[in-house]
């Protein structure tokens, strides 16, 4: 599995608490099979969901900026704004955004709040106070807290970045409504778990909670007949 020694397996990682990276479809499949083997409750979930497909997005500032641009917008609106933004800067990187005039970014469709977030990120990266890529090697909870300490970066954005851009195998999107609903149905809960309740529910799946999230999204899609996570 990517990011591990040749002898590393999901089962061994679970015992040693080492970070697993979901860099390929085979990585995800190994992790899902390990989860189903460990937790018998996931077997019927997997039978309905099938093997989820790995979704990856660009890492670094570009990947996080892409997610920020899509916050609280429809897929179509987010895609249009990102298309204009990425076309306006060649290359699109933190330094280009740091130097860009605020009014120019606004004309491309970014709100004042998102401009403030992207500008702050760009300054932090430029000053070498923030390295987004090293978060892939950190404990998932520590990496999550590093991201949400940044202005304009909420829990969902942090977890989506860790999971889809960095391939962090233990990132856990506790606030995602589709994962919450999937768990409610799949585990036979009386009510959809809250974000706070999602943490203890996911403890049996450490350090493969990211793979578990992929499985629950796939399950949600199967039982609800609609997507529950942003497109790749």
Structural account:
The chain is mainly α. It contains 13 helices and no strands. It is elongated, with a radius of gyration of 18 Å. The two termini are 21 Å apart.
Structural class of the secondary elements? mainly alpha
Percentage of residues in strands: under 5%
> H/E element string?
HHHHHHHHHHHHH
Shape: elongated
| Terminal-residue CA separation | 21 Å
Oligomerization category of the chains in this entry: single chain
Percent of residues in helices? 55-70%
Uncertain stretches of 5 or more adjacent residues? 2-8
SS field, number of helical segments: 13
If you average the pLDDT, what whole number results? 90
Query: How would a crystallographer describe the biggest sheet?
Result: none
How many DSSP E strands? Answer: 0
Radius of gyration: 18 Å
């Amino acid at each position: 599995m990517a990011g591990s020694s040749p002898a590393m397996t999901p089962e061994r990682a679970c015992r040693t608490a080492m970070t697993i990276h979901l860099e390929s479809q085979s990585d995800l499949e190994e992790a899902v099979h390990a989860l189903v083997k460990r937790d018998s409750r996931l077997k019927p979930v997997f039978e309905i969901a099938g093997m989820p497909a790995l979704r990856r997005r660009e890492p670094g500032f570009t990947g996080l900026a892409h997610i920020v641009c899509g916050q609280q917008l429809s897929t179509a609106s987010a895609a249009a704004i990102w298309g204009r933004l990425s076309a306006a800067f060649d290359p699109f990187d933190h330094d280009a955004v740091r130097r860009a005039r605020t009014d120019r970014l606004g004309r491309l469709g970014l709100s004042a709040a998102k401009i403030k977030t992207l500008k702050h990120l760009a300054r932090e990266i430029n000053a070498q106070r923030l390295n987004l890529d090293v978060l892939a090697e950190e404990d998932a909870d520590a990496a999550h807290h590093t991201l949400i300490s940044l202005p304009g970066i909420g829990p969902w954005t942090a977890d989506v970045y860790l999971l889809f851009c960095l391939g962090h195998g233990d990132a856990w999107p506790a606030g995602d409504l589709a994962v919450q609903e999937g768990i409610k149905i799949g585990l036979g809960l009386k009510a959809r778990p809250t974000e706070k309740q999602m943490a203890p529910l996911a403890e049996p799946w450490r350090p493969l909670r990211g793979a578990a999230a992929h499985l629950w999204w796939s399950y949600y899609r199967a039982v609800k007949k609609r997507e529950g996570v942003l497109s790749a």
